[in-house]
Each structure stands twice: as C-alpha cells, then as structure tokens.
Specification:
Chain A has eleven helices and two strands; from the N terminus they run H-H-H-H-H-H-E-E-H-H-H-H-H. Chain A is an all-alpha fold and 387 residues long. Chain A has a two-stranded antiparallel sheet. Chain B has 465 residues and is mainly alpha-helical. Chain B has 19 helices and two strands. In chain B, strands 1-2 form a two-stranded antiparallel sheet. In chain B, helix 2 runs antiparallel to helix 3 and helix 8 packs across helix 9. Classes of the chains: A mainly alpha (387), B mainly alpha (465).
C-alpha cells in the first residue's frame, strides 16, 4: 500500500459479496464483447470494403451493416452490466480514472451517437439499394468513432490500475487542486498493446460472425458468395489471431512490469495458457469451415468456442486487474452488507427475462419458418441473388 | 472531496448532467408513452382490419425505434456516465443503494430492445396476436423501467425514513407522485410526437383524423396524471424544497407555468383533436410539441433545483460531502477531510504539513498572501465549484460585485444561514479566511458605483455594515 489518495470506504457497504460482483462483471463483459467486437472490427471492414472491395466484399459489407443497428443496441445494453458492477466494488479507483480523463470519457457519449447514426444512415441506404458516397462516408466516420471509443476505454481501464500514472495525470492537469479532465494515459506502456490486442480479438469474433452469417443467414446469396465469405472468414480469423498473438506478446513481455508477469506466470499460468491457446481451437473450426459454407455444425462449434475464448479473456483480464490493483487497493476487503431480497428479486427477474426473450425469439423463428426465402435481411446487396 | 473535482470553466461540471438529462427525458418519455401507444394502436388496427392505419403505425415504429433505441438509450447511459464524472460521491451512494434496482432495470432494457426490434422487423411476419403481445411486452417493460428509475430520482428528493433498506428507499414518499407525473408526461409527450410525425408523414386524411381522435384520449389522461402527480409531489417534498420553490422567483414562476401550460394543453386537446380531429395541422402539432418541450424542460429544472442544498436529501450535500461528515470537517478541516485536497495542499505547501501527513490549520495564516489565495482557490473548487463558476454560470465574479472582506467571511461561515439552499460551511474558521482571500480576488466594484464615487444608497449601506 502507498500514498495514493483512495476514497474512504462507503458507509453503506457493498450490497453483494465480492464473488457475486466479479461473476456478473465478467459475465456481462463476455456478453458485451460479442456484439462489441462485431461492430469494432466490423465497421473498419465495412469502411474498407465499401471503398476498395470487390463485389463479394461489398456484399459482405452490406450484410454486416444491416445487422449492426441491432447488434449495437444489444452491445450497449450488455455493456451496462460490467460498468454497473465495476462501480460497486472498484469505485475508489474507477471514479478518479474517469475524472482525470473527464472530457474524453464524456466524449464517448457524442461519439457513440455519431457512430450509431452513421451506421443507421448507411444501413438505410443499403436497404433501399441506394448507397451513395455520403453513406459510405458515414460508415467510415462510424468506424473512426468506434476506434476512438476503444482508445478512450483502453485509457480509462489502464489508468485505473496504474496509480503512478494516475498521480502523474493529476499533477499535470490540476488547477487549484481540481482537474481539467484532459489527461490521457499515454505514458503507460500497456496502453497501446491493450487497445490493439482488443482489436485483434475483435477481428477473430467478426470472422466467426461472418461464418455464422454465411452458413445460417445468407442462404439466399449465391454459392460463389458463400464460398468466398467462408474463405474470407478463415483469412480474417487468421489475421486476427496473428494480430492478437503479436499484441498479446507485446503486452505481456514488452509492456507489463516483470513483477506482474512473474505473478501471472506463477499463480495462474494455466489460466493464461488457456487464454493464449483457446483461439487456436476456433482457428481449427474456421479452417474446417472455410470449404464448407453450408455446414452448420462447424459454424456452431466455432461460435461456441469463440464464446469460450471471450469468457477466458474476460476472466484473465479480471484476474490481472485485481493483481495490478492489489499494489494499492484490494476490493475484496471491503465491508459487505448484502441486500439479499433485492438480489433474489433481480435473479428471479433475470431468469424470467431470459424466458421472455427466449419466447420472443421462438415466436420470431416460427414466423420466419414458413417463408425461408425471406430470412435474409440484406435487402440492398450489390449483386443479384440466386433464383 | 473524496474524488478529484472535475473543473469545467464557465459552466461547472454538473451543468453537463443537466444538458444531457433534459434531452434524454424528452426522448425517454416518448420511449415509454410511445411504446404503450403502439401496442394499443396495433391491437386496434388488427381488430378493425384497418390496413392503412397499420401501414402508418409501421412507419411510425421505424421513427420510434430510430429515436428511442439509439439516441434514447445512449443518452440514458450518458446521464449515468456524466453523474459519475460531475458528482461521484452521490453516484457512489446511489450505486450502493440501488445496484439491484439498476440491475433489474437492465433486464427490462434488454426486453425492450429485443421486443422493439422484433416488433418492427417482423411486422408482416408475426401473427397479429403475437405481434400485439410483443408490443405489450415492449410497452410494459418500458413503463417498469420508468418506475424503477423514478424510484431512484424520487429517493434523491425525499428518501423518507429509509433506514438503509432497499425496499423502503424504493417506496419513498415521492415515488408514487413522481410515477404518476412521469407516466402522465410519457403519455402526453408520446401523443405530441405522434401528432408531429403524422402531420408530416401520414398522407391519408382519414388516418390523420383517426390518430387525432384516438391519441387525444391518452394525452388528456396524461395531462390529468401530471396535475395529480404534481399535486402529490408538492405535498410530499421536504420543507427545504418547498421553501426553495416558493422562495425563488424563477422557480415558482416555472412551477406555475408548468401547471398552467398543462391545463392549457388539456383544454387544447379536448376542444381540439378530441372534439375536432381535423384541426391537427402541422402548425398545431408543432405548437403543441414546443409547449410539451417547454413544460418538460422546466419540470426537470425545477426537480433538480429544489433539491439544493442536497444532491440526495439529508444524505449527500451538493458539494459532494456526506451530511454526517460536516461536524468532523468543521473540527479537523475541509482540506484534511478530502483525500485529494489534502494530497494537493500538502504537496504544494509542505511547510504546513504535520508529521502525520495532515494539514496544520493553525499554520495556514502563516503562509504568504499569494499562497493563502491559492489555498482558498482549492477550497473554492471543491466546496463551491459544483454550483458556481468563478465567472460564467452562477459566476462568483458577477455575484460578488460590491462585496468586501468582512461581508465575505461572514457569508462563508454562515452559508446555510444566508441562503438555506446552500450547504453549511464545512471547514475550520482558518479555512474560511483562506476562502475569503480567494473570493476577494473575484470581487469588483458595486454596479452602482460610479467613476467619481459610490451612489449615496450604496455608501449608506456600506457604512451601516
């Protein structure tokens, strides 16, 4: 422990045991990563393909942009869970980090609005089959906005575990003891690999999404397109994997402090090992799937394995966050005043909510079943479809 | 104090909350009322086999999804985002009280999103009964999320005797009145959106007439609920809030305006669209919408303003200090009480640091004049900066024209006595002197003071002091 000005513990106590907070924080982050990765890497792909892609590539871009409004809405909501629970147990470090980068953190809201409406604008043009340069421009702006948001998040979460950097940011931006909210964590060597590592992982998730889309949702598209898309998904996954491995190595061996690396290797080497090798399992699925654009089992296996990869990643990140923080703050030691009945009410509602969502999706599946020819949502594809 | 204070020159950081909140409420109210409207009207259109109306409703649902699921959802998160930046201690307090309330609200958010997308994207595929059911799932989920968030905002105004109990906090004295008023506002605002949209987008005159007739009923119900909820709100606000409401001219004018405009809108709906549906022209719809926006924005402003001196009544003051911390701070010092203020001052002025790493209040007066002003500036940032900019919004340079040092020191030591909507002075007398030194640098001559000397009125007032 040292001189970091930690806020005193709340007199209310933590409303739930620490394990409960960690479980939902990690679960929520895993769920958030699935759609977030698709838009994070997806908007970059869409922008590149719209500008420079072949006919198949542009069709893929159109299919992806059509799905993004729904995925973004879900992803934002799934993101609420980890952000809610991080404030319960990590408030003494989360709020200072937020405030130190205040203007950037605040800018996430307008950036997200711009990115979301940019995607909508482009998607509407695609659905009406009237894609203009302005629509593509909106797609490009959205991708830049999402990259900027990712960078701001990387700043915040690297800053909150790095107390010397927090103090340096405070001293740099203090005006009469208050802060201007203009700091960024650029002095932290872990910042860039952290941000770029997430982008690499996002490429792999987007690749799995493309395979799933090709196998299950693109049945109205031509065989040539589907064969191309399955191969492209494999290629994209390979690029993402190499990127993730390179950035992960930079992070672990080039940016993380030797003490932390030592702790990571000695205490949970198995977890980190699994996190490192698990994407390889997905890669094998993608390899099998590259020439089988109609094999649902391989696509489902790849999707399931990718969820495991993301869950392992979330657990490893959580573990590392706790170890980094342990140098000056231990959330596990905070007083707990469990709110049992509200917790039970939430869990019951959570299960009931899942049931209602399941019922709605079932009704949707039933509604779509008699007319499989209408299942695709990519109304504005640039190439004629089969039949 | 427990956290670094975010200094936003000219505006103050909490004003950023207001900026997002007002625009959010205008859309979130529509998200609730519009959801109920769509569920009800789709059912009506299915039952009556009115295909033209159904086609319009589909068109309206697209507008609804585009506005509420994107902008409404992001700005909703945006409020939460911004309160953590501008008011971290109250946010910490609310999170630890209502985390499971928010978690429950999250479940309803997910239901809303899934239902909204299926409701729109599978419009022509779902069986009519299932389509209606999904519409109701959206509408009811949206209303429950209104109930949950209203429990939190009403708690902030009057927690009642909640005894650190979640359910008592949820069922605070303000909950039901505020739920009534917010439900009413949702129904009313949704109708205004529908009128506005249909007056431009519904080409068929019979559809416009039908919308005018059918939508005016929930709007009138909404206006009545606002009046009923508003009355309940007035009866259950704490004494300090009632005093602020009646004592501040701007606030009581706003409150009366809200009441009168709601009554006017109620009559406009009755004699307009309800009795004469063909009256709903684009101009009429715009006029009603503007009135609705004014009433909503004023309502939000009043709701926020009357909470002062608290952010959470009887628990957390507007200067990010817990109520029960104040006596200790008055003994040991405001700067010592805040981990960031103590860090800053002891680093900046190590000569007044004690062996335990604290600030020696007795030694503050030994600092050179410039340093005393600097210490005062830090106190100003943390004690006053949530509500006052040095210059700009509620700016001290503008407020303190003509004040002198003795007046300032008296004011600082008796903040809550001079103005009951301000928090009590939360430091030592020595710190009050430091703040006074800083405030002196912000003063300028009295506006009535002329180049040749003060006017007689100002002079006599000054001499009387």
């Amino acid at each position: 422990m040292n001189d970091f000005p930690l806020a005193p513990e709340t007199p209310l106590g933590s409303p739930a045991p620490f394990w409960f907070i960690l479980f939902f924080k990690t679960l929520g982050f895993t769920l958030h990563m699935i759609p977030m990765h698709i838009w994070f890497a997806g908007t970059v792909l869409i922008a590149l393909f719209s500008l420079f892609g072949s006919a198949h590539a542009r069709l893929l871009a159109h299919r992806m942009i059509n799905a993004l409004p729904i995925l973004i809405a879900l992803g934002i909501n799934f993101g609420i869970v980890p952000l809610l629970f991080i404030q319960v147990s990590y408030y003494p470090v989360v709020y200072p980090a937020n405030i130190l980068i205040g203007w950037y953190w605040f800018a996430v809201i307008p950036l997200l609005i711009v990115a979301y409406y940019g995607v909508y604008y482009y998607a509407v043009q695609v659905r009406r089959n009237k894609v203009t340069a302005r629509g593509v421009f909106c797609g490009v702006i959205s991708s830049l906005a999402f990259l900027a948001i990712g960078y701001i998040f990387a700043n915040n979460f690297s800053l909150m575990t790095n107390e010397p950097q927090m103090m340096a940011a405070y001293n740099r931006t203090a005006v009469g003891g208050a802060v201007t909210g203009t700091a960024l964590n650029t002095g932290d060597p872990t910042l860039l690999p952290r941000w770029l590592m997430m982008f690499g992982l996002a490429l792999t998730t987007a690749a799995v999404y493309i395979l799933v889309d090709t196998v299950f949702l693109a049945k109205r598209e031509t065989e040539e397109y589907r064969a191309w898309a399955a191969k492209f998904a494999f290629l994209l996954h390979t690029v993402g994997l190499v990127w993730f491995a390179a950035m992960g190595s930079w992070y672990l061996f080039g940016a993380l402090s030797p003490e932390l690396r030592q702790t990571a290797q000695s205490s949970v080497g198995v977890l980190f090992g699994l996190t490192a090798v698990a994407p390889g399992l997905v890669w094998l699925c993608m390899l099998l799937g590259r020439s089988r654009a109609s094999d649902g089992r391989i696509a489902l296996a790849a999707a399931a394995a990718q969820v495991v990869v993301l869950a392992l990643n979330a657990v490893s990140r959580q573990w590392l966050q706790n170890v980094e923080l342990a140098r000056f703050f231990d959330p596990a030691k905070m007083r707990v005043e469990t709110q049992w009945s509200p917790m039970i009410a939430f869990l019951v509602l959570f299960v009931l909510g899942l049931g209602v969502v399941g019922w709605m999706l079932w009704q949707l599946a039933l509604a779509l079943k008699p007319q499989p020819a209408m299942a695709s949502s990519s109304g504005g594809s640039p190439k004629p479809r089969k039949r | 104090m427990h956290y670094p204070f975010w200094y936003v020159p000219g505006l103050t950081s909490p004003m950023l909350i207001a900026l997002i909140a007002v625009f959010h409420v205008l859309v979130s109210s529509y998200a609730v009322g519009g959801g109920l409207f769509l569920a009800m009207e789709v059912r009506y259109a299915h039952r009556t086999g009115n295909k033209e109306y159904l086609a319009y409703l589909k068109q309206h649902t697209w507008f609804f999804v585009l506005l509420t699921v994107a902008y409404g959802a992001i700005t909703g998160v945006g409020i939460w985002w911004t309160i953590g930046l501008a008011s971290p201690l109250p946010t910490e307090f609310l999170i630890h009280t209502f985390v499971f309330g928010w978690a429950m609200e999250y479940v309803f958010f997910v239901l809303e999103i899934v239902a909204a997308f299926i409701f729109y994207y599978a419009w022509d595929r779902l069986k009519p009964r299932v389509h209606e059911q999904i519409g109701w799932i959206y509408g009811i989920s949206a209303w429950i999320s209104l109930v949950i968030i209203t429990a939190v905002t009403s708690f902030m105004l009057n927690p009642g005797n909640w005894q650190n109990n979640f359910w008592l906090a949820v069922l605070n004295p303000q909950t039901i009145p505020q739920i009534l008023a917010r439900t009413g506002a949702s129904l009313l605002l949704a109708t205004l959106y529908v009128f506005l949209h249909s007056s431009f987008r519904a080409n068929n005159a019979s559809v416009r007439t039908l919308i005018a007739q059918r939508s005016s009923r929930p709007a009138m119900l909404g206006a009545a609920l606002i009046l009923l909820g508003g009355l309940g709100w007035l009866l259950t606000v704490p004494e300090s809030a009632r005093a602020a409401l009646t004592g501040a001219a701007a606030l009581n004018i706003m409150a009366v305006t809200i009441f009168l405009l709601t009554v006017v809108v109620l009559f406009m709906f009755y004699y307009g669209p309800y009795k004469n549906p063909s009256w709903v022209s684009s101009g009429f719809a715009i006029l009603l919408f503007v009135l609705g926006v004014i009433v909503t924005a004023e309502g939000e402003f009043v709701r926020e303003a009357v909470r002062k001196p608290f952010v959470i009544y009887n628990e957390v003051y507007s200067h990010n200090v817990l109520k029960n911390e104040v006596p200790t701070l008055q003994q040991t010092g405001f700067l010592n009480g805040g981990v960031w203020t103590r860090h800053y001052i002891t680093q900046r002025f190590p000569e007044i640091k004690t062996a335990e790493g604290k600030i020696d209040n007795a030694r503050l007066a030994t600092l050179p004049q410039d340093s005393q002003v600097e210490v005062g500036h830090t106190i100003f940032q943390y004690h006053c900066g949530s509500c006052h900019a040095s210059s700009g919004y509620s700016g001290m340079k503008e407020i303190l024209r003509g004040w002198d040092a003795p007046m300032l020191e008296k004011l600082v030591l008796n903040l809550d006595r001079y103005h009951y909507f301000m928090p009590p002075w939360s430091g030592t007398p020595e710190e009050a002197k430091m703040l006074t030194r800083y405030l002196e640098t912000l003063t300028s001559p009295h506006p009535m003071e002329t180049a040749g000397g003060r006017s007689s009125g100002v002079q006599s007032a000054a001499s009387a002091r």
